[in-house]
Amino acid sequence: MTSFAGWQMPLRYTSETAEHLAVRRAAGLFDLSHMGEITVAGPEAGAALDYALVGNLSTLRPGRARYTMICAEDGGVLDDLIVYRLDDDEFLVIANASNTAVVFEAVRDRAAGRDARVTDATGDYALVAIQGPEAAGILAPLAGDLDLDAIRYYAGAFGEVAGRRAWVARTGYTGEDGFEVFCRPEDAPHIWDALAAGGTGADTGAGLVPAGLAARDTLRLEAGMPLYGNELGPDVTPFEAGLGRVVKFDKPGEFVGREALAARAASGPARRLAGLTIQSRRIARHGYPVLADGKAYGTVTSGAPSPTLGVPIAMAYLEPGTDAGDHVLSVGIRGEEVPAQLTDLPFYRRRQ
To answer: What's residue 344's pLDDT?
Structure first.
């Protein structure tokens, strides 16, 4: 167990490598109840979110989800978010645990003067995720009348899981197919136990294991997914992170950070997020310098051994023009320059 944003979280249950590979090959079960849930409801909820966030949320259809960000006036990222439209006049905003209060206060303040109620509903939700190629097969027998095949990627529906009311969404943070089950906190242990039994029972033997934060981190790293505090933060705009597509300049009206983000889009990012494959067994950790021809040209944001690929990998911010064709790259690891190969993101893409 480890302390994280005021929660006690499972770092690993047994082996983080075994948990990682189970998600890639079968399924993993995650307790993500630390994530923040903020509801925005009312006739002008969509308009409030359009102003508060960089995305065009008012066009989102009920039952669908969208990845977006909330930025400061200077364009810096306050958090990256998933927003679900539960109904015509109700949205559910999922924030990172360490940023829940910041996101809630910013959305509440930016919604002022509109007919929209902003509520920190984190205490009303628990979140259990099942991720991996066997996830749908394990969840289906417990999902009652829900047609999981009809729930597309980045979509969700209300239904029952193991007889308990839940919002079931086809979303995740692992690079695999899977579902996130939002339920009442008192129902979470029952749903967890039912999914665990369904994935490990004698009749199924699907290979599901409980998985902790360590495996979740290596899974998202392989999938090239950013982590707030590493790849994202107030000193980074979406354009540096290669996520400028989430900024919707074509939506009507103003939104917070529009002017600064438009200027950054026009000038181009001052640095760019890139993937690195380390040419040794040594690990490039957060904060290590990336060198080109012996000079510092960037900084590692995340690094770990890749259980799927069998080599250490990393993401790093590099100065523009730093590429494998013009420079010999390395990472400074405890005084040694360790060769690194520029690698397209994501490192891993699941088979469809």
So the answer is: 94
pLDDT above 70 coverage of the chain, percent: 97
Q: What are 313's strand-pairing partners?
A: 277, 304
pLDDT of residue 205: 57
192 contacts 137 by C-beta, under 8 angstroms: no
Residue 100, token pair as written in the block: 């829940």
Tell me the per-residue pLDDT of 169-180, one tens digit each, with 9 for 90 and over.
Answer: 999 999 999 999
Q: Is there a common fold for 2-33+125-221 and 36-123?
A: no
Q: How many other CB atoms are there within 10 angstroms of residue 300's CB atom? A: 24
Show the DSSP H helices in the chain as ranges: 16-25, 45-52, 100-110, 135-139, 188-200, 213-222, 258-267
- Angle at alpha carbon of residue 162, lines to 95 and 33, rounded to 5°: 20
Examine the pLDDT at 325 and tell me if it is beyond 90. no
pLDDT tens string 253-308: 999 999 999 999 999 998 999 999 999 999 999 999 999 888 899 999 999 999 99
Find the length of the chain: 352
According to the model, what pLDDT value does residue 322 have?
Answer: 72
Write out the CATH class of domain 271-352: mainly beta
- The set of residues, in sequence order, having a beta carbon less than 8 Å from that of 54 and lying 6+ positions away, is 68, 69, 70, 71, 238, 246, 247, 248, 255, 257, 261
2-33+125-221 topology per CATH:
Gyrase A; domain 2 (3.30.1360)
Q: Which DSSP letter does residue 288 get?
A: P
Domain parsing of the chain, residue ranges:
2-33+125-221, 36-123, 271-352
So what CATH class is 36-123?
alpha beta
96 φ, ψ (degrees, to nearest 5): -65, 145
> In this structure, what is the dihedral angle of CA atoms 183, 186, 191, 193, given to the nearest 10 degrees?
150
Six-digit token pair at 210?
A: 């409980």
Which residue, among 256, 262, 279, has the nearest Cα to 340 in the 3D structure? 279
Helices 45-52/100-110 angle, 10° precision: 110
pLDDT at 206 over 80: no
